[in-house]
Amino acid sequence: MTANLLDFDLDGLAVFCEQLGEKRFRATQLFRWIHQKGAQDFDAMSDLAKSLREKLKNSAHIVPLQPLSRHDSADGTIKWLFDVGGGNAIETVFIPEQDRGTLCVSSQAGCAVGCRFCSTGHQGFSRNLSTGEILAQLWHAEHHLRHRMGSAERVISNVVMMGMGEPLQNYTALLPSLKAMLDDHGYGISRRRLTVSTSGVVPMIERLAQDCPVALAVSLHAPTDALRDQLVPLNRKYPLAELMQACRLYLNHAPRDFITFEYCMLDGINDGPEHAQALIELMRHGAGLGVSAKFNLIPFNPFPASGLRRSPQARVLAFAQHLQDQGFVTTVRKTRGDDIDAACGQLAGDVMDRTNVSSRMTRAPIMMHSANSKHHHES
Which of 22, 91, 166, 262 is catalytic? Predict the structure, then answer.
């Protein structure tokens, strides 16, 4: 069985080349051909010895993902649907802006976390993606866009692990993917421009800090355990006190001096002034000394199975102002690509669910606990 070379970071490729009797510099040359030049044909790799090219033909291949479809939004956003076999398909989104090009990458076919407001979670979970399947999304997008734009320069400057799946529940495949993205012989993405988004897998946040500290974004969405337990079920395993402690410790290693907290604005659920104040208290006093934070407020992108509504814009802006008045950098995310279902929370792909999602996720009312009392009401 031959190896797919997209499955390796540079260290892994060096080990593979050593097994072929080749020195490490050959792995570096090969890595550049694959990731910087988008090559698939070993015969095209002109600076490799012919003997190595023959070995590679017999022992390796470079097989990217096959796009099933591509949709272009009016705002320039592009969404690809990639076939990953077994009836599963994943989505990848490119978001162009004046000063950057951002690729939103998937890490799993589906997601087992089951956040109430996310359409991926409502599709259930099939399997983790391999390193090659994660990297193939960047490989395809980068070289497709270069060809389309007639450019030899890098198009994608930022990568966010915010597509389908919980990246930190697929850590074994994630780590070499991140290393390949960072590698100057690969894509040369800076640590500040490579972001892992997590719903709060505390032990793996701690491991990421040691193994490969990149920018961290936490899908928070609620300022109290009572509410977050319902919106982000993983909170029942790793409650806010543990999550905030992990975030505080991560800052000792992070390339930025803050953690980004994502907060999806849900009408009547988490968008009141009392929630904003509770959020401020959490950041100031969580983990004892508080956590340096930036907030990214996300307009909810409705889908029928959620039973939830988007917060009115005036309430979102008032919420943002409340945070800003207390000294927190706060942005309200522009909704990009919603005309092609490529906006935040809309990525669903096609997932052969193995987790009985229909019985796990119901549209039961969310029990609202006031920040100032023990009473609750249904929403």
Answer: 91
pTM of the predicted structure, to 2 decimals: 0.90
Which CATH number does 66-378 carry?
Answer: 3.20.20.70
H or E element at residue 113: none
**pLDDT single digits (tens) 24-58:** 999 999 999 999 999 999 999 999 999 999 999 99
Residue of 224, 283, 280 whose CA lies nearest to 258: 283
Quick: pLDDT tens for 168-213. Answer: 999 999 999 999 999 999 999 999 999 999 999 999 999 999 999 9
Q: Which CATH number fits domain 3-61: 1.20.120.10, 1.10.150.530, 3.40.50.620, 3.40.50.300?
A: 1.10.150.530
Residue 91 a catalytic site member: yes
* 131-149 helix and 171-182 helix, angle to the nearest 10 degrees: 30
Among 111, 115, 212, 344, which one carries the catalytic annotation? 344
* 242 flagged as catalytic: no
